[in-house]
Design brief:
Helix content is about 25%, strand content about 25%. With about 350 residues, the protein is of the alpha+beta class.
């Protein structure tokens, strides 16, 4: 929340047996956190109980507080940086497919992607989420720049107002647009070109509790912006359509990845389930690259019906980092979002709640 400050410094003190999988994942996630001045600095200080732990040497101490290098710059690669292996979504249990209020978008060229979760208390929230996702991949905005945030959110608001055909809405709908509007969370990720050793820089932007999970072939993972299932609540930060509402500060993360790494972008209900399974050592990350849409729907419907997951709209985008060579094709924002052969209802006649 202090985007203009120097990189935050964390000192993690623990005994050797404290380095379990969840704590290691939390440290990796902490290292990825970024402000404009650069990524977080983390010192892991391991000690033996009952002994003097000492103090870091001057060279180590100075590394923590030396002049920041700045947040990594992610240049747009000329070749696809990832492939979309799967895109899953489902509406709340008991709702119609047209009442799904999440959205996702993948930029032309396979270098940027975004997932948004529309808040159900507003109006036309699905279209607001779709506008935010599509504008993020088209504009690749730097939301650490407050002036850029204002311009970007204004453009998205204008898009949304035109899409809902505000002058033609009923009075009751116009009143809800004016008084409540729409709101959504956002998780977006950008990838840079491959280097000589086939690594890529990635940078993520988040507002709210939609999450990114980065998994390596070795099974190491980190999540952003939340790292544990218990961190989710019913009041996340939101990007709001209503005029006069200042956008909340965005959170940022950055790191490097290699060909074969997985990136999962998920809305809160799915992300909470993924992180809970990871904490219990039950995560099977690669399974989401092979599941069919029907298998995915059956899994999450069972979880909701059994009370092991909140009944909410669910979205999961599965990206596989590509090697540094051109792929045969690139996915685009024009993904046909279908479910069980049912295409989403286009924007048209809506109820006072903004549902088709």
């Amino acid at each position: 929340r202090h985007a203009d400050a120097g990189p935050p410094v964390f000192i993690h003190c623990a005994t050797a047996d404290g380095a379990d999988a969840p704590s290691e994942a939390a440290v990796r996630a902490t290292r990825s956190l970024a402000v404009r001045g650069g990524c977080a600095r983390v010192l892991e200080w391991t000690f033996v109980p009952g002994t003097d732990a000492g103090f870091p040497s001057d060279d180590v101490w100075n590394m923590l507080f030396d002049h920041p290098e700045g947040r990594p710059i992610v240049e747009v690669p000329t070749e696809p940086a990832f492939t979309v292996e799967r895109s899953f979504w489902s509406q709340k249990r008991g709702n119609d497919p047209g009442q799904w209020e999440d959205a996702f978008a993948v930029g032309d060229g396979g270098t940027v992607a975004a997932v948004c979760d529309g808040a159900s208390e507003g109006i036309f929230c699905r279209d607001w989420a779709a506008r935010l996702a599509s504008r993020f991949v088209a504009d690749r905005p730097d939301l650490a720049d407050r002036a850029a945030v204002a311009a970007w959110i204004t453009a998205a608001r204008n898009d949304w107002r035109a899409a809902i055909n505000y002058p033609q809405l009923r009075w009751s709908q116009q009143n809800k647009v004016n008084e409540t509007g729409a709101s959504a969370t956002l998780i977006g990720v950008e990838f840079g070109p491959a280097t000589a050793d086939d690594t890529r820089t990635w940078r993520a932007t988040a507002i709210g509790d939609a999450c990114l999970v980065h998994i390596t072939p070795a099974g190491e993972w980190l999540s952003f912006p939340l790292t544990a299932a218990e961190q989710f609540n019913s009041a996340p930060a939101l990007l709001r359509r209503k005029l006069g509402v200042v956008p909340p500060p965005a959170a940022f993360a950055a790191g490097t990845c290699r060909a074969g790494d997985l990136f999962l972008l998920a809305t809160d209900a799915v992300a909470g389930r993924l992180l809970g399974a990871a904490a219990r050592g039950e995560a099977n990350w690669d399974s989401y690259s092979t599941k069919t849409p029907d298998e995915w729907l059956a899994e999450f419907d069972e979880l909701r019906d059994s009370g092991n997951m909140v009944n909410d709209d669910c979205t999961l985008l599965v990206l596989r980092v590509a090697p540094g060579v051109p792929a045969e094709r690139a996915d685009s924002t024009e993904i046909e979002q279908t479910q069980g052969g049912v295409t989403l209802t286009p924007l048209g006649a809506f109820t006072d709640d903004g549902h088709p």
